[in-house]
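In this section we turn from sequence analysis to structure. A common task in structural bioinformatics is to predict how a protein folds when a small molecule is present, because the ligand can shape the pocket around it. The inputs are simple: the amino acid sequence and a SMILES string for the ligand, here zinc ion. Study the lines below before reading on.
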Amino acid sequence: MGYSYLDFTVAADKSVKKDLRAGHWPVYRHYCVVDPAEGVIRCTRGLDPGLVQELNPEVCRYGEESVMLHPQRAKVYGPGFYAQGPYVVAPLWLKDVTQGLTAEVFWEYVNAAYSYSPLSYPDMFLEFAGLADGGEITLDMMLEWVEQYGVLGFEGRECRDIDPQVPLLMGGPHDSLLAFDSEARKANAVLRLYEAATDPKGVDVESIRRYERWFATKPVLREYGHRMDTSAGLRDAALGWVAGTVRRKVAEDCHPELYQEADGFRIGYGFKSLVGAMYLQMMWLMTATGETRRCQGPGCNKVIDFESSESPKDPGLRKNARGRYRTRTDKRFCSDNCRVKNHQQAKRRAARLQ
Ligand SMILES: [Zn+2]
């Protein structure tokens, strides 16, 4: 007797569901990118796109059949803005099971997930926002991010509520490159504007101006337009937009959550998308009473990391972290570039003193 697609869907569902309820997010071992016109075009680490497509036709055919398997998905099939172009998805099958399958190798054939607690990585927002510093966000950048942290979760987002019947967060048309790119750019504008407006050395007018197209919205202009020719007015306008964006994202994608544990109840956060969890981190950054550390590079005001009294200390069930970069406590610079610039400036200063 063989296993059916449904058996695995149910098995995978059972394995991740309880973790999700505790503010955890699943990361699958493998992901692939599907181009709506060409099918599976790219996969993570050594997986053959052709084989993945053959074994998982449903990843390219978000039509009637997969609606039957995932009735909750039917609701989000509407042409949402993000459901355009290539998207990321976790395929269920990794190897051809018709070649004979034994229980021992079963998990080699199926794309299993582990989970972690996004809120335990308080610099995730900094990392996500930083992706857009270099200009274009590519498919590879998205795939690398997703392999590390899971999908952003726009696929099925509308059906993700307090009901524990959560979807599997395996991605789909709404977890598109368009969605990833738009969200990373917006997060970039939020963070860089916040840094420039709250620079301890004074308002960084030049950097704020660079992002003007983001914050010069009608509501911001109505409130601050008459004094945006001063640096204080420009700072307030930028911060007004930053606060509004953070407020909206947190309100839309996060909620207080009641967790039931063996020894009683605990309050925490739940979120509909990974973007929601990241904006919660941004909100903590903006309200942090502890010291928010800045890069000491010449002319740089980037936030390096921050301590938050609210972020949980428990790193969660995150196993198998692949070379995740952790902020060192003695870190002083945002990049090698700033470290080198600082070193050169110190050398020039020393030379002048001689
Ligand atoms: Zn720097």
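The beta strands are 25-28, 32-35, 39-43, 87-89, 113-116, 171-176, 254-261, 264-271, 292-294, 303-306. As an exercise, try to locate the residues that line the zinc ion site and compare them with your own expectations.
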